[in-house]
Write the structure tokens for this entry.
Amino acid sequence: MTLHLSIIAIAVIALSIINYSYEELTPKTLSQLYDEYKGKTIVTGEVISINDKPSENLTSYDIKTDQFLTRPEKYTLVTASAPHDTNEKDDVYPHFKVGDKVQLYLDRGSAGYALSPYSFEMDKRCSSFGPSYLDFEPPHSAPALDTIRVLDPNGNIIGIPTMNQKISLSYDVLNYSPLNETTIDMNITLNDDPNPIFHNSRQLDLKPCSGTTLTWDFVPIQMGNYSITLRQGWGTYDNKIILGNYTLTRYGFSPIQITKTDLMSPLKQFKSGIKAEDVKCNPDFILAIKLDYSAACVTESSATKLFLRGWALGFTNYEPIYFMKSNSTAQIIVKYYPNKYQGATPPDFLIPLHSWIYDTKSNYPLAFIAINATSKPNYVHTSSVTTVNYTVTAGSTKGVYWLSILDPCVLVPVAVNLDQSQLTTSSLQNPGDSRSCPPPEIQFHVVGVSNMTLKLIHDIR
């Protein structure tokens, strides 16, 4: 075989090599291996050919080099050998294939390079392990590589958490090891007490040199200084290399306590220029968007009644769901009125009401088999107030269906033969969200239901 390389320097070996057994081989850390081989050779590269030598009981590997981690060399190709015919139970030498990416610890004798049993295969995404990582433990004076993100329930980054309100702690974890798994431990302590008030350990199946984002939910229920320590751990690779543990990051925060005197009233917040959907409520209250698009804070227990009275258009992070039984008929009563809050009253014309039914996956109305709906009347005037009674008839099929009460974008969810615990994120994907529709030319709100139950469900989407 001829290799066409611009510059090739080759180190060749033909020498006797010691056979180790697992009993004779002591597991070592990457830093120990680096200290042992810093006067020798640690190299990374790709196996390009293999040559078995039965008469010498050796297998030689030709390695196209990527990087010398210890002494710099000019070689673009090295050849190193390892014992070939060893007892399978005691075989501690790696067996590589052509195309493998490897990190090799090489002992050099008068005849060339001998492969150390601590050499190992790497994932192709990885470049090298050590020496700068030294068991992945940076100097204690070094800053953390990354920090924990504190998120509100909507996934927005916040600066200072609020006491008694749920936060999410998010961190991007990397598995910088040759193993396919790693463990992440989170401990949260309060003030000077070393005993954690929160502990969570996760075993991750994560490919080498890849990453994922982890999130933990936490509610600070006491005032004080919270300290978060995030540690990552690995096992022993191939029973030979101890990968150890590593403190990923440390993070601290002190929550604030919001009382009724700390927050302006919803009306004052709204008048100060804060958008209605961004108004903050005291704990135990939820945010309502009123008919005039202003904001109010109400208790969750009163929200459904206020919604049916037409006092509120909706509630932030809450979805109205209409529950009915299979093989039953129910009514949803909707009141339509001129759209006064979008400027001048529009000219008087008719808007047809089609009472279309969709499911989560439908871009087109369903055939009237599992569920159907009719409206009376089946049109409304843009300049007058009209009350419409929608009659919904469900068959024996259960599921979440979407009733059109204005156009293909304005849909309400009807859950047939389901309870709240059976609702899933996918079942509540509104098919109208993917459509492009103009602003509605008339306003409306639900004012009543019959033979079904309206519940405001915390949005799980």
